[in-house]
Design a protein that fits this description.
The chain is an alpha+beta fold. It contains two helices and six strands. It has helices spanning about 60-65, 90-109, and strands at about 10, 15-20, 20-25, 25-30, 45, 50. The strands form three sheets. A two-stranded antiparallel ribbon has the order 1-2.
Length: about 110
């Protein structure tokens, strides 16, 4: 990728600017016609993009700390999927009612 910043700063179909907070882009060398997908070596590049919200007053301290870290492995905090929020917190009809409210709110904006 020539411009990695383009992975973070994007525009939607209406031209509005957005920041990508989490993404896992990858690029793989094309498979040769007639060969198995994993039958021979090919180049692949991937990365994990994650964001962390930091108070303005703590930014410099966090930045200095973050610049000195080695990020191999998955030791930094990771986000969770929304469905994990409901694990053991809302059950049955209450969950269906809650999800219905979310759907109605999304439709009415």
């Amino acid at each position: 990728m020539d411009n990695p910043q383009g992975l973070i700063e994007v525009k939607d179909n209406n031209g509005a600017d957005w920041f990508v907070l989490e993404s896992y882009p990858s690029w793989k060398e094309p498979k040769e016609v007639g060969k198995e997908d994993w039958g021979y070596p090919r180049k692949e590049v991937w990365c994990h993009l994650r964001s962390y919200l930091v108070k303005s007053s703590e930014y410099e301290h966090f930045k200095n700390w973050a610049e000195s870290q080695h990020y191999m492995g998955r030791w930094m905090p990771e986000s969770t999927d929304r469905y994990q929020l409901f694990n053991r917190s809302i059950t049955g009809q209450r969950l269906l009612s809650f999800l219905n409210l979310i759907t109605i709110a999304a439709r009415t904006g």
